[in-house]
Amino acid sequence: MKYPSGILLALISVCYARYADGSSLLQAQSFPKTAADLTFVQRVELLSDGFEVLESTYDASGRCISGCAYYGITLAEDIQRSEQNTEDASQHMYDLGYQTGEDGGFVKQTEDVQAQQSATTQPNVVVNYTPRCFPVKTDIPAGQREPVGEPLKGKPRITSPYGYREHPITGEYKKHYGIDFGVPAGTSVFTPADGVVEAVWSDKYCGNGIRIRHPSGYKTIYCHLSQQLVKQGETVFAGCEIAKTGKTGMADGAHLHYSIKYNDKYIDPMKWLGRN
Ligand SMILES: [Zn+2]
């Protein structure tokens, strides 16, 4: 989507008038003026209503104009903030006794494994029924609290990584807030950690989505699902199937979009997958 620069400035001004948290970069101007402006306003409002952001777009001067976690943030500021979030989450994993393994992912230190196993015999969540858990992804340790490992079996191909990319034709910069795995529709999706299902929803970007809150400050988000097999408020265990993949929402083919948040900020899930 391309706008003349005058309209871009107006868009940013409106966003700042509505969303700025103390700081302001630009003064509010008259807006909207065109049908395209109205479409943009509608999208911003949809996103502010709690829709999960999958991508953000930056204008030619490097300011975020849609889908942003922080409206009007510059590309450079967003890259810095994003790297800091991932660094903070990595430090948290080291504090919990994880190390970086040979494949670049997090592994538990050997001396901690026994302590971890005895600690996990007591579930940290109150469960008054037996959660549905079939099939099980057996390489995910039972009782795992952090989202370490893959949400799909067989290390499928990553079709789109987390981060920034310049569109080869339009030249638009976009930030992608998760990792896309290329898998056929109907593939089982597993949660890599114990948790509680915080949301089960549907919107035009994520399609059918699930968000799980894990202990220790992490959340995982799954999009474009064909089937959501868990309900809001349900307890889930590490390694249990929660959904089937699909191509609902903004997806040109079947794939799984997978995001991780730490303290409610998106991080790059790559190290958490355990492969490079
Ligand atoms: Zn995606």
Provide a brief overview of the structure.
Helix content is 24%, strand content 27%. By secondary structure, it is an alpha+beta fold. The protein is built from five helices and 16 strands.
Structure in words:
The protein is an alpha+beta fold. It folds into 2 domains: 5-76, no CATH class; 77-161 and 178-273, Glucose Permease (Domain IIA) (Distorted Sandwich), CATH 2.70.70. Helices cover 24% and strands 27% of the residues. It has helices at residues 5-19, 35-48, 75-95, 110-120, 270-273; strands spanning 55-58, 64-66, 98-100, 106-108, 158-160, 163-166, 173-176, 179-181, 188-190, 195-203, 207-213, 218-228, 235-236, 241-245, 256-262, 265-267. The strands form 3 sheets. Strands 5, 8, 9, 10, 11, 12, 13, 14, 15 and 16 form a 10-stranded antiparallel β-sheet that branches. A 4-stranded antiparallel β-sheet has the order 2-1-7-6. β1 and β2 form a beta hairpin. Residues 54, 160, 176, 178, 180, 257 line the site of zinc ion.
